[in-house]
Fold these 2 entries.
Entry 1:
Amino acid sequence: DTGVSQNPRHKITKRGQNVTFRCDPISEHNRLYWYRQTLGQGPEFLTYFQNEAQLEKSRLLSDRFSAERPKGSFSTLEIQRTEQGDSAMYLCASSLVLAGTQETQYFGPGTRLLVL
Amino acid sequence: AQKITQTQPGMFVQEKEAVTLDCTYDTSDPSYGLFWYKQPSSGEMIFLIYQGSYDQQNATEGRYSLNFQKARKSANLVISASQLGDSAMYFCAMEDSNYQLIWGAGTKLIIKP
């Protein structure tokens, strides 16, 4: 399977704990995106990387959230001191941007986070 | 501001009938892309179809077609011969000048046997 993968698929944690999610993009893709989706809503953009550089962060991404893509391949999203409002589906997507054009963003299966 | 509007929160359709899901958009960029994604209850966002703003013909992918009316700023998804497996949330999205996707609120489609 050469699609986008995310781990874990589900995470239950207690309020105040830290959690980390991983995303492995399609191997030749240079862009990686993180989104958050709450029930009944469309995805909300959080941040994206071009290779290893984090180029934009949404204002939704408070200082408790940090994302990395150290070698331009997989990415991690960490949430510190989780709050119940962080409960959501966290989606990762990747795409290939070449010479000013972009191919489709392909999504992983998501990580469902529940903060108790 | 760029915006995607999906006015149908939910739809019920009889199996084997065609269904049209509405999407209107607002942008001042001359170049943009429009996408439709399907999200089953499992949660994965599945790409269905893409339409570029300069494409002369409406996009088609199997049973999916995109009814692109540029002057009206609409990009409706048409699913022909609906199947039970088509039951899912459907999202319309627009790619902005930074290649980021702006999403609509989605339409929940339920196919009745």
Note: The CA atoms of residues 20 and 78 of chain B lie 4 Å apart.
Entry 2:
Amino acid sequence: GQSLEQPSEVTAVEGAIVQINCTYQTSGFYGLSWYQQHDGGAPTFLSYNALDGLEETGRFSSFLSRSDSYGYLLLQELQMKDSASYFCAPVGGYQKVTFGTGTKLQVIP
Amino acid sequence: DTAVSQTPKYLVTQMGNDKSIKCEQNLGHDTMYWYKQDSKKFLKIMFSYNNKELIINETVPNRFSPKSPDKAHLNLHINSLELGDSAVYFCASSQGGRLSSYNSPLHFGNGTRLTVT
């Protein structure tokens, strides 16, 4: 079957670093993507890992371990505007991108 | 200028009615999707079309019928609306498709908030 687990909520202080973990179980796995969604908005693409290791894009980094079916999103130098929901989303065959309920990140001053 | 546009933005209707949501993308993508996001933020894939062909059809009541007249358009028709259909429906597109094994990010529309009373 398919399953996806990430924390429901995380709170962090402005300027700090936060890590959002994700474990998944899915068939036909190609890679792990991450999306950000602000309240009332649409999900927007952040990053994608096809291979094991760390991918860095500015303040955001994403990590994948295929053998552990595990990944994380690392957000550095947190800003208030980073308050949003973050979804890890495994990509399967036919470009099937599976989401869950995401992690609601609250950045506090 | 908008990449993925869906209409209407809001839809309020009564139980038992039939309604449609339209989606258009001008990105030249081959694949389009419908996702449903409930009040708990759970974002669930419903359908995916690649070049007008249905390639993903999740466990969705057959009251929901997608239609893709061309690869730039994907509409969603819902018959006999029920209270549980209340949600935000997102259309999305990507370059990837049936034979694609590389990542092509999803580009989402702004959503249609459907409220069934």
Note: Chain A touches chain B at residues 30-31, 33, 35, 37, 41-45, 48, 50, 85, 87, 91, 94-102, 104 (CB under 8 Å).
